[in-house]
Design brief:
Distance between the termini: 74 Å
Low-confidence stretches: none
Helix content: over 70%
Number of strands: 2
Number of helices: 24
Shape: globular
Radius of gyration: 24 Å
Oligomer: single chain
Order of helices and strands: HHHHHHHHHHHHHHEHEHHHHHHHHH
Strand order of the largest sheet: 1-2
Length: 495
């Protein structure tokens, strides 16, 4: 006789999460910046094991739990493939001189006072045009980080500015997958959703820009920064720095705008970097190959090494050597490991109904528009933390809350905006979320280091709650009915 499956109690649903929080706290204390090298992954495995034991106690069969785990990991596979390709793209863009060129011209153009402000704006424009925060961070983001480090800025502060701009663009771009997903889940159209987001996103990015501008004017970074002239000289001596290299990022942005899917677009960008490296940087190619022989053989070895492994270009300046190093696909393995273990944890929690159990309790505090949006924001952040995927953090709450918003006389764009104000932008603040793990891996800056400076990502969910709590521009279904009724009465009066 099959064992009857019962729903988890709230405490049972919370035990794996409490354990995870405890283990992660110990990891930060004892491992510091090395938590992504295995400690956090094991914490997720142990927490998933405890969740699995509870699931078995509730009557769930291992085959069912395993099926949900596999499905959960499968949903993250596009992100994992993109992550690998970003590693190879960063490599070929480094040895081709694209990233050094961006650093070189950036140091000449960007004044330290407005550097952080400009970083937000630049990343916002590129992400808005491409619809991809990941591509923005992996390309111009890496260059801006190098410029910021050279100017003497704290790495977390620079990464926070980069991510604030990148996620603003991702959130507002009609080309972004999350910007299309949120209105689809809520039941509204894309451009209604984007226009309505301006009401919360506009103030959030304005406050963010003001904060970074104040930091720029009040921090004396030049006193602690690396000598800029020395960096410029080192780059000039090692690379053929030419505006022609702008063709590579321009080409990638162009094909992304033309809606070429992410994987083929990143492959194309990687190969474009490889071609320009072979043509314009023969000395770098020979240095990385480190063998005698014809140039074709040296080029093949150098490009392959750069795409799959760690490569560093040596100069007479130690600080520049740090900037001109790349880890290729292999450098992303710890991040991929983290994503897989996170999806295992999320899969077990989902299969046992623990995630739904916790969200049902959250719904008990809903009494008005403010508390409903607050509950939506909290649920999205909860799913970003437990399911470790921003898409699930949009899809599941979107399905859960759609009918409740309708019952409370709120238009679907109120829900879609809340999903994006929280589900999209907070994903990068969670170390084991696919977004947080990816951006930490790409930038080489731990999530705990940059998260306090991602002002846009932090402000956005609070702005969403604030607007709803004070009933500012909250759209109601009954408003349309009243407008239609008024128009009908006017028509009758005209007759």
């Amino acid at each position: 006789m099959a064992k009857e499956i019962r729903d988890p109690k709230l405490l049972e649903a919370l035990i794996p999460i409490i354990l995870l929080i405890i283990l992660l706290t110990f990891n930060v204390r004892y491992f510091g910046d090395e938590t992504l090298s295995g400690a956090n992954q094991i914490a997720l495995v142990l927490s998933a094991t405890v969740a699995g034991l509870i699931a078995a106690r509730l009557g769930h069969k291992w085959k069912s739990i395993r099926s949900t785990i596999v499905k959960s990991i499968g949903s993250a596979m596009p992100s994992i493939l993109i992550l690998f390709l970003i590693g190879s793209l960063a490599g070929t863009w480094m040895i081709s001189g694209v990233v050094p060129m961006l650093i070189y011209y950036g140091l000449k153009i960007l004044n330290p006072t407005i550097f952080l402000f400009a970083s937000v704006v630049i990343c916002a424009i590129i992400s808005l045009a491409t619809g991809s925060s990941w591509s923005t961070v992996a390309t111009i983001g890496i260059a801006l980080l190098g410029i910021g480090i050279t100017l003497g800025f704290n790495t977390g502060l620079v990464a926070g500015a980069i991510l604030s701009g990148a996620y603003f663009g991702d959130k507002m771009s009609p080309l972004s997958d999350t910007t299309n997903l949120a209105p689809a889940m809520a039941g509204t159209d894309l451009f209604t959703h984007i226009r309505y987001m301006v009401l919360t996103t506009g103030p959030s990015i304005t406050i963010t820009l003001i904060i970074f501008l104040i930091i720029g004017f009040t921090n004396n970074v030049e006193a602690v920064g690396t000598d800029v002239d020395a960096v410029l000289t080192s780059i000039e001596n090692k690379f053929n720095v030419s505006p022609v290299l702008l063709v590579v990022p321009a080409f990638l942005i162009f094909i992304i705008v033309k809606k070429v899917p992410p994987l083929p677009a990143l492959i194309a960008g990687t190969l474009a970097g490889a071609v320009f490296a072979i043509i314009l940087q023969p000395e770098v190619i020979r240095e990385i190959a480190n063998i005698d022989g014809n140039y074709v053989k040296q080029s093949y070895i150098s490009i392959m090494r750069t795409m799959f492994g760690s490569v560093s270009v040596s100069t007479e300046n130690a600080a520049v050597n740090e900037l001109l190093s790349t880890r290729g696909m292999a450098g992303m393995l710890n991040t991929v490991w983290l994503i897989i273990t996170a999806m295992v944890f999320g899969g077990v929690m989902e299969s046992a109904g623990m995630l739904i159990k916790i969200t049902r309790y959250i719904m008990k505090v809903v009494h008005n528009a403010g508390s409903l949006v607050g509950a939506t924001v909290g649920t999205c952040i909860f799913f970003n933390t437990t399911a470790s995927d921003q898409y699930l953090a949009i899809v599941v709450p979107g399905r859960m809350f759609a009918k409740i918003y309708e019952d409370m006389d709120l238009k679907p764009e109120v829900l879609s905006r809340a999903l994006e104000d929280s589900g999209t932008v907070t994903s990068v603040l969670i170390p084991w979320n696919t977004c947080g793990a990816t951006q930490a891996g790409v930038l080489g800056v731990s999530t705990f280091t940059y998260a306090p400076y991602c002002f846009f990502n932090i402000i956005s969910p609070f702005m969403s709650i604030f607007m709803a709590a004070f009933n500012i521009k909250i759209r109601r279904i009954s408003d349309d009915k009243e407008v239609k009724k008024a128009h009908s009465e006017e028509d009758r009066t005209d007759i």
